[in-house]
Amino acid sequence: MLPVTEPAGRRVRTAALELFAERGFHGTGIRDLAQRAGVSTATLYHYMGTKEDLLAEIMRDSMRLLLRAASPTGTGGTPTERIARLTRIHVLAHAARPLHTRVADDELRALSPGSRAEITALRDEYERFWQSAIDDGVSTGEFRVQAPGVARLALLEMCSGVARWYRPDGPLTAGELAARYVEMALGLLTVDGIRLEPDPGAVGDMDRLVAELWPPS
Amino acid sequence: MLPVTEPAGRRVRTAALELFAERGFHGTGIRDLAQRAGVSTATLYHYMGTKEDLLAEIMRDSMRLLLRAASPTGTGGTPTERIARLTRIHVLAHAARPLHTRVADDELRALSPGSRAEITALRDEYERFWQSAIDDGVSTGEFRVQAPGVARLALLEMCSGVARWYRPDGPLTAGELAARYVEMALGLLTVDGIRLEPDPGAVGDMDRLVAELWPPS
Amino acid sequence: MLPVTEPAGRRVRTAALELFAERGFHGTGIRDLAQRAGVSTATLYHYMGTKEDLLAEIMRDSMRLLLRAASPTGTGGTPTERIARLTRIHVLAHAARPLHTRVADDELRALSPGSRAEITALRDEYERFWQSAIDDGVSTGEFRVQAPGVARLALLEMCSGVARWYRPDGPLTAGELAARYVEMALGLLTVDGIRLEPDPGAVGDMDRLVAELWPPS
Amino acid sequence: MLPVTEPAGRRVRTAALELFAERGFHGTGIRDLAQRAGVSTATLYHYMGTKEDLLAEIMRDSMRLLLRAASPTGTGGTPTERIARLTRIHVLAHAARPLHTRVADDELRALSPGSRAEITALRDEYERFWQSAIDDGVSTGEFRVQAPGVARLALLEMCSGVARWYRPDGPLTAGELAARYVEMALGLLTVDGIRLEPDPGAVGDMDRLVAELWPPS
DNA sequence: CATGAATGAGTATTCATTCAT
DNA sequence: AATGAATGAATACTCATTCAT
């Protein structure tokens, strides 16, 4: 149960955040919320609309904050600098607010169509900062990726994963972690001449195995 | 409703796979399963144990298949070759079997402790192939990453994301997609001399913004 | 929401009257009442006892008023005159105060036994004016009905119906409407020589149909 | 609790019929229904859709039956004969099936718009038989009422009231009761020359009283 | 092989009401 | 005079599951 020193309305929000992140929206009952917040289920409804409103609120807050952080960051400087800053922000956000970001990343499908559209729009806006930085970098030649759209998706997935496992009491500070991700992101985007000379035999074997295990439908 | 030409037992599995992937385990009711499979809820129980057994089965199958594909692949050759093959396999699997892999990636928390331990063990075994390839590459100098454990997590998240968005009728075949991911993975692992000389001022600003938006609790 | 110029206590009464008439007692929640009255649910309880008290109050007022109107009216003059006056009053009351009378007519069953007894006593007292006028008319020969008790019930139901459909902006004024009801009431009570010679065959057919549709259980 | 010899599905219907008639739709909880039917609330839903479906079903059945009875009855013969037959049927139906008819008469407002429209259409169709018989009688001179529409409403209200109080073990059989209503209905429709010469003074007094008690808003 | 019948426990949400301020 | 906070009990309805047939 959350500390009773906090006002009840805030405790309800915190309970929702923690439980939605931990068990998912559908895996969290309102009784769970009430118990964690230290109020009765009836009192819950004094502080919230529906359970889904609570979810939408969390996701909206999460996306707006990320967007607010990305806006000044995603625009100035070279593509390399922009990607570096976006990555840094994204990782720091996911390390500092893993609950918010996990809920935002995982529970889109639990929203009703109306809220889903709203949140998706925010996310799309956010992703545009990434895409344009990548595209610009490809134009200037700073980045060498063959499929810029795929690169964006790969980068975002990779960075968002942080929220799933990062612990501040681990070996890396959030800042160090972000630095590592910046390096990896830039490495990923600058695929160098030193390319894999794929052993055709091995690849052939592997593809045969894949085809056998997951026949093309 | 699924085609009635399939035997009912298989239709139940397919229904579970589709619905768990689409709505999540907790978001799927057994009535949904029964309807999609075209049988009554009572009949469902002729073909399955509990709803959770169905989930555990899917996850087990998914992980075992991946493991079976990774075993011969993860061992021979240079670290670079091994990572290339693992990436290729992982991406092909996620492109070819997005439902299985999404369920396996997302629904671990829905399992009861017993099954969770079993699946986690399989996943850990699988990830060891990646980790040892990365570590070996760092030893040989083929890879230059500062935090090999983080690199593993980043790589896996990035590649698994494929199951969330890849469509076989899009611009890339699964093979081309895998090739792009291999390039990006190797790029990510070989962070080259061309390093970002971070504008300290800008980073300072950004960190101040981040600290403001997500105060360290 | 009701006009805020009215004092709150009155607005609560009006809200209750309107909503109980429109949706019934059980179909009306106290949140509905509060919203319509423009106050919070807590404030509601400054102006009322329980929700049921509010209902009992309305019904008591309604019946007392009707009784007060009927008292001087139900006694003097010939039975014909008395029925004419009672009918006139009853119809005017139901046309002028449809909400009160509808609630009084429909929501007896929603009252707790205590209040129900009280209101029923008032209603019985009121109906006695009607019954005695009818009985007297039968004695004097002014009325020719075979079942005076049934006639009372029929008359009252027929006149009370006015509250369900009369609109003052329709083709008839309340006075004209009352005049029509007086005529019909007196016609109903004076069943003349011109009697139906029922075609026995037709009646037989009909009774057979009725027996088939609604078997005597 | 209803006899367990009946099949459960039927017991649910009977319970709904009785309780909706007795306490109204909103006054009846599904626990009440379950208890009366002798099943659990969950089992209830094996035999019904929603609570409202149950209500709509009852009303539909009730109106359809009445309509089926009225169809052959409302058409042949003189207006007097038609009204006599309609009245007879209506009264017999309300005496034989008081629960059905009370629910149908009282709970229209509890229906959702969709079902309400459907039931209202049936009721309007039924009332047209009455209206056309009345109108035809006015044309032929058999009936002398000043406001035929009002007469229809008055007749229907008066006859429907039967369902509220008639008991088969009382002094009148249903057939006798119907006969009395036929007489009253025809009397009501044939308002004779011998009309009330209203004592103007008395009427004036009364109207003054009415105006005082129920001021015209 | 398949299902209709049945349920205890649970779902999210609302109920009328109280009370301290 | 008015309300925000709080709640136990109820609301209609669904859950996953069992079992006799």
UniProtKB/TrEMBL annotation, chains A, B, C, D:
Gene3D superfamilies: Tetracycline Repressor, domain 2 (1.10.357.10). Residues 29-48 bind DNA. InterPro entries: Homeodomain-like_sf (IPR009057), HTH-type_TetR-like_transc_reg (IPR050109), HTH_TetR (IPR001647), KstR2_TetR_C (IPR041490), Tet_transcr_reg_TetR-rel_C_sf (IPR036271). It comes from the Bacteria. Residues 6-66 form the HTH tetR-type domain. PROSITE patterns: HTH_TETR_2 (PS50977). It holds the Pfam family TetR_C_24. GO terms for molecular function: DNA-binding transcription factor activity; transcription cis-regulatory region binding. Keywords: DNA-binding. PANTHER family: HTH-TYPE TRANSCRIPTIONAL REGULATOR RUTR, HTH-TYPE TRANSCRIPTIONAL REPRESSOR BDCR. This is DNA-binding transcriptional regulator, AcrR family.
